[in-house]
Amino acid sequence: MNKLKLLISLNLLIFTLSVTSKEVVDCAHKQIGVPYVRGGIDPKHGFDCSGLAYYCHKKNIPRSPQAQAAKNKINVKNKQPGDLLFFACGSGRSISHTVIYIGNNEFIEAPLPGMKVRRHKMNPRYCGGRIVSASRYWKDKN
Questions:
Q1: What pLDDT was estimated at residue 127?
Q2: Structural domain boundaries of the chain?
Q3: Strand pairing report for 118-121 and 106-109
Q4: For residue 41, which phi and psi values (nearest 5 degrees)?
Q5: Sign of the C-alpha dihedral computed for residues 142, 73, 122 and 35 taken in this order
Q6: pLDDT tens, position by position, 31-86
Q7: What is the tens place of the pLDDT at every residue in 2-29?
Q8: Which of helix, strand or coil describes residue 22?
Q9: Fold of 2-135
Q10: pTM for this structure?
C-alpha cells in the first residue's frame, strides 16, 4: 500500500510540473485585459486570482489560493518568474490573493471585481506588503 501511495505521489508531482516558467509568464501576459470574474478559470469567461494561476499552469495545480500555497513551497526571497506569490490582503494572516511573479519586481494578477487582469509593480503598500508565501509549479526545460 505504501508503494502505491508513493507511486501516485510521484506521478502527481511529475504531472504538476509539466509547464515551464516561460510558458507561465507568457500565458499570464496574454491574459492582460481579461475581466475579473469570481470563480473564473478561462479567458472566455474571465478569471479570479487563483483561476488565472490555474489556467496558466494548464490546470495542473490546485484550484484555490490556499491549496496552491500549501504545496511546492519556496522561500519568497528565491522567487523567480513563473512562481506564485500569496498575499494576506485582509486584516489577518490568511491567504486571500494569488499573483504570478514575472520578474523585475512585477507580477500579473486578476485583482478585484470590476477590474481586469493587469501587470503590477510590487510595493510595500500592496495588500499591506504581506506576502505570506510562494510556490513553484514549473520546471526547467532541461
A1: 74
A2: 2-135
A3: antiparallel
A4: -135, 15
A5: positive
A6: 999 999 999 999 999 999 999 999 999 999 999 999 999 999 999 999 999 999 99
A7: 444 443 444 444 444 679 999 999 999 9
A8: helix
A9: endopeptidase fold (from Nostoc punctiforme) (3.90.1720)
A10: 0.85
Provide the 10 A C-beta neighbour count for residue 80. 14
Give CA torsion, residues 115, 117, 122, 127, to 10 deg.
Answer: 40
Query: Which residues in 117-132 are b (16+ Cβ under 10 Å) and which e?
Result: beeeeeeeebbeebbb
The pLDDT-based confidence of 91 (bands split at 50, 70, 90) is low
Residue type at position 44: K
- Select from 72, 46, 48 the least CA-distant residue to 60: 72
CA distance 14 to 19: 10
Q: What is the pLDDT of residues 95-105, one digit of tens each?
A: 889 999 999 99
Identify whether the C-beta of residue 57 lies closer than 8 Å to the C-beta of residue 19. yes
